[in-house]
User: What shape does this take?
Amino acid sequence: MNKKLAYLSSVPLLGLALSSPPVLAADWTERTSVSGFYSARYSQTDEEAYFHGDRETGINEDGSFQGTKLGLTVTTQVNDDLSVAALLMSAADENDFSTHVDWAFASFRLNDAFTLRAGKIKFPVGLVNEYVDVGATYPWISAPQLIYTDETAGPQATREAYTGTSLLWESDIGDGDWSVGSDLFFGQVNLEGMTVKGLFGLTVRANWDDSVEFQVSTYEGTMHTDPTAMGMMALMNQKKHSATLFGIKVDWNDIVAYVEAAKVEMDVTMMGKQVGDSDAWYATLGYRIGKFLPHITRQEWDRDNGNNQRISTLGVAYSLTDSVVIKAEQSRIETDDFATQAGLFDVSPSSDSVDMTSIAVDVIF
Assistant: This one.
């Protein structure tokens, strides 16, 4: 499990080391570690409308490789207290792979309990959001999309990353079976056509014996949209965006379970009615049988404007090795009032129930 979570890195400093004099380069190399991950995913529905994206990225009856990606993480320990880290990600789009820096930040250890971070930092909200791209670290093919999505039409509870600062605190309690921690963060989130500024949030975690994890997060910011934006995007301008999330993860003996809920408020009204607020939750239960992990997941999301989604998934993950996991899932996606509301579909689907089949291979190295 430690290998699956070791993905802090620093791409810029690796380049510096390679271009430095031999002695200095060797010194940097000794203090630099490199790891990575790869996910190959394929999904297909029985519906013409695109789910979780549009014609270029979404999933429909023609099939999609959405979620296929390669990540390279590098971390360099500058000295005993300072490290620099980054993740370079290449993800599949319609015709090719697009590459970007997912996050890159510096960490300074203030003392044994506190660490200060600055840069582009993975959004610390949601049980798995800080490693959501590393599929080998969780049972699903994709983390539950009714919470973990950046789609504008979705709940907007989590984000890829924010630019700013973070103060981490960690401590053990009693004989060490319990560990607790918090992440106080401040900055802004840059999105397509929108920036959330003045972002301020707090995540608190508690872990018992690496078997049970509790997490609570809350944050608030102000949305600033493109001046030429229309419709819902225009209504969001200068409005508050806040969210509260609560989650529990259990990995005890052979039982694996996740429960998470999110409440999002966006202070957006249309014709005197709130249209931006929403509630979402999911629950997953799985049981290990040797190298197999069969699991079942139920997701629900409701927005005040009537937009909603229900997803039921039956899946299995097979650990071929410690570094390779093969997965298969069958999902049913339901949308109430499908004639007028689309949920995470790009347009209203042709029926209130859509079936989706997905397969994946997740690798870490």
